[in-house]
Amino acid sequence: MSPRVSIIVPCYNEEHTVGLLLNALRQQEFPLEELEVIIADGLSTDGTRNVIGRYKTTYPELSVILIDNPEQTIPAALNRAIDRAQGDYILRLDAHSVPRPNYVSMCLDILERTDAANVGGAWEIRASQNHWLSRSIAAAAAHPLGAGDARYRYSGAAGEVDTVPFGAFQKKWIERIGGFNESLLTNEDYEFNYRLRRAGGKIWFDPSIRSIYFARPDIASLGRQYLRYGYWKAAMLVNNPQSLRWRQALPALFVSGLLGLLILGTLLPGARLVLAIYWLLYMLITVGFALREAIRKREPGLLLGFPLALWTMHLAWGLAFIWGIVSRLFRRVRGRI
To answer: N or C terminus: fewer CB in 10 A for the chain?
Structure first.
């Protein structure tokens, strides 16, 4: 029987979580004979490929196809997997995600009921490690101060949205709008959904579609993640400025204000006072929410880790976004000279 659903997974050095993903897919409340899993691996250097190989041997009832992704980028991995996919439906997951047992069946049911082009659900964001800082990062990533109005990070009512994580769609949409944009090393899913919407498709969020997502384990990796997010969001917006949403502008506006006041502070003494008040208000807000979360979750480590994670996310995203916009506009101007 040909597979009805193809699950595509970009992967690189995920030996600690890819087995959890495969276990969750094998336990889906969906006929395994109608399911195939295509993992596009960016030539992992850890034990990822061995984990996948052992799983294929131990559980042959789940069709797992491992292909190479020498470009080592997420959009290239997705496109390679889509080219190999035989299913009429494409479901995108990550190698550090764990879908609920009804994930596949819920995606197909909601696609049919809503007539949406792409559907997705809520993340249950969890810590990658049993450590106070890792738990703080997960809490910040799931909080509106860290997620903005991205419903999938903190759940919410079902309805039409601008983007969803992962996503489930019919393969025919690829033939209509093309695959993922390989010039965007991050933010490829948002850009894909933007093209779907421009083509008349509807993007639908439903919190009954649920998966576990493991947040970054430490501040360094969190900072690198949000630097990528901000820089490649700018890359998309230079070409599609009308796709900007308020949540994406706030970190850049905050950092722009901070940088502007720092510069003015070297010239105007009054600007230093404004800068001090500006930063103090920000600290009070973030630390205040940290105190609230620490009490609610009875987790003292959140008092330090929660605001530290927020500061990292906001500053990294904002700085990278500004740099991405300025550098691209400069290249455009220089190219016209």
So the answer is: C
Beta-bridge mates of residue 64: 37
Q: Is 209 exposed, middle or buried (0-12, 13-18, 19+ CB in 10 A)?
A: buried
Residue 335 in this model has a pLDDT that exceeds 80 = no
The residue to which tokens 């479901």 are assigned: 91
| CA–CA gap between residue 128 and residue 230 (Å, rounded) | 22
CA nearest neighbour of 1 among 92, 86, 109: 86
- Global pTM reads 0.85
Per-domain boundaries in the chain: 5-217, 238-336
Tokens representing residue 128 in the block: 């990658």
Distance CA 275, CA 51 (A): 52
Nearest one of 151, 329, 183 to 247, comparing CA atoms: 151
Torsion of CA 158, 34, 196, 228, to 10 degrees: 80
Q: Which amino acid is at 15?
A: E
9: left (phi over 0), alpha (psi -120 to 50) or beta: beta
What is the rounded CA–CA span in Å between residue 304 and residue 295? 13
Confidence band of 185 (pLDDT split at 50, 70, 90):
confident
Q: What residues are paired with 11 via a beta bridge?
A: 41
User: What confidence tier does 193 reach under pLDDT thresholds 50, 70, 90?
Assistant: very high
Instruction: Please tell me the distance from the alpha carbon of residue 92 to that of residue 87, in angstroms, as a whole number.
Output: 12
The token pair that represents 328 in the structure block? 């691209």
What's the pLDDT at 50? 96
